[in-house]
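Hey Z.,

So I finally got round to the zinc ion thing we talked about over coffee. Here's the setup:
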Amino acid sequence: MANLVATVAVDNTFFSFDTDYSYNVPNEIASDIQVGCKVLVPFGRSNKLRYGIVIQLQEQDNADKLKYIEKLCDVKPVLTQEMILLASWLKQKCFCTTYDCLKLMLPRKHGELKSKSERMVRLINDDESLISSLTKKQQLVFNLLLDVGSASVNEACEFCDVGVGVIKNLEKQNIVEIYDREVYRNPYNLKYEIENNEIKLSKKQNEAYLTFKEMLDKDGGNGLLFGITGSGKTQVYLKLIDDAIKDDKDVIVMVPEISLTPQTLSIFHKRYGNKVAVIHSGLSLGERNDEFKRLDRGEAKIVIGTRSAIFAPFHNLGLIIMDEEQEHTYKSERTPRYHARDVAMFRAKYNKALFLMASATPSIETYSYALNGKYKLCELDERYGKAQLPKVITVDMKQEMKNGNKSPISMELRNLIQESLDNHKQTILLINRRGYNTFIACNDCGHVLTCPNCSISLTYHSNINKLVCHYCGFAKGLDNICPECQSDAVRYSGYGTQRVESELQMCFPNANILRMDADTTSKKFSHERLFEAFSNHEYDILIGTQMVAKGLDFPDVNLVGVVNADNSLYDENYMANERSFDLITQVVGRCGRRDEEGIAVIQTINPYNETIEFASEQDYKSFYKNEIGMRKLMIYPPFCDIYSIGFVSESESHAALCSKKFFDILVELNSDEYKDVKIVVLGPTPAKISKINNSYRYRLAIKCKNSKNVRNMITEILKSISKMRDYKDVSISVDLNPYDLM
Ligand code: ADP
Ligand code: ZN
Ligand code: ZN
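And the result:
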């Protein structure tokens, strides 16, 4: 007799054992169960109950031996057929379990769509002068609420590391109130007037728009909008979104984490009001849950967000936009290590939607596919209106040193900053390292001060007067004595954001300087606040790490400086040139975005480096031509794929031996069962940073043409190693075309 059998993706299983688990469907639920439903099933020898998602239902003979589903958790499926297919496809690319992929799509850990009422706390007295009367712990909560408005009591306690008593005390003083929240939580507290102005496109913009509009109206496809900074790519998006919405289609707009600024959001909120939902990794679970519900119910038609927004549970997806498609934030660095671009292509194909990538500096791969006709290519090669690309000046910092200037700011840049201040304009300075001094060594014995837990040198932070490890957070006071030879000739050199800030403050005592880096923006929404303050011209100079380089549009900025253009150039990664070019071009693009000409200063010790030369000429095409030639010669993507295999363990020898074992099995399989697969293996070697947080890291890279065969071979190796007792404590990661080779 045939039984109804469900194939279930079960939570918390191991990749190496991940097969399809089949269960009998009890009669009571047979008429309700559907693909995409959440269930509880008995699992393993102990029959412990675990959550799972039904990914297939079929009649099957001889199913008597199978276990039975314990419980159907929701009558309504929590995931659509599209998402189930997507998960099955994605798991093969990412070497993880189906459930690992499904989790990306579920609004909560176990996909509970029910809204729970939550204990919330909000400020009812926001008089900042109260602060001095509060205890240290109360101040933490007060400051948090000033920043975010409201928070769940649990979140507030966790964030400030205080007990509930602290909040209760604030309640007694009538400073906060505690309430139950069941209403919709709106993280952005919207009060926008809708302005649905008609957009008038320039001739070039209109050509691009019409090309993509045709795809949008027909069967979709993949496109690249290659437009220089300030060319008005956003206006083209808006026109396309208008059309999609008119046709009752859903829209996903992806932006890199760093450009999810109030500026960007307000453009969308003003135009589309409550049709917009926002999804990014900074949302609390509750907020994320709410936004998912609004999408699922069809209240929101446009989602704007970072990487994870690509999994938005839309039912009628028509348009996906990926702004700054080259950004590394679109690639997940955690399991599942997916690239949002691949997911977007899957969804676009499934839904016959248009997937539009856009950038001033597309990744080498994307641009080459566009040139080869794989993606539809449109170009905007001039700035909108009267705005001109800035004039670029390259300063040779070696010469500057010879002239006796030891400061990180060249004379030329200094004079230009002065001029900008005199004209009441604003300046942005990019510097790649945070902290004060970035290199601390002993002059007598040469010993470099490194973190005891990581193979990384320590950075001096002047505000806390400590040496800090940027990888594990280790911090120690400084005693100026070399731990190796006890000499007191410890020398501090290299400069980070803090040192540049203090140098500038000395040169320009009357200027208001804003520093933005991971140290000043760790609080939720603090980015937004700081950018807003800069935008209101409360500051004259903004200094910061990469987060100040991209996507911003400040009308008063007429000068930008790259303090050290060399930092990222000599990385051992094949993408190093591409990344430097992108960074410099983007930061240069931040200025002169209105009528007046802007100036960009690039400080470098290699003024004749080709990448820097192309970037200062804002010449992407020549850079591309040069770079693609190099990639072809050296056989790097797009001429091959690279799998980076990482081995991490607290035991150095286990990590090393495991990587060797992997290599041996690889060679064996490649000479036998998989001898048709062409590969080049690099390594195994210790990783670039060989120890982080007391874990040792080894790596191995496989150059190949990605195919089912290669994936099967790697899967087979992973499965055999997982059975070996010696390497139980080694965690192995597989990453396809990673931004960092470990
Ligand atoms: P990009 O994203 O390509 O760097 P933006 O979309 O930010 O460029 O456009 C740069 C500036 O030019 C913005 O201030 C934008 O409002 C303005 N702009 C561009 N195109 C138009 C247009 N068609 N009509 C009005 N303003 C435009
Ligand atoms: Zn020493
Ligand atoms: Zn460390």
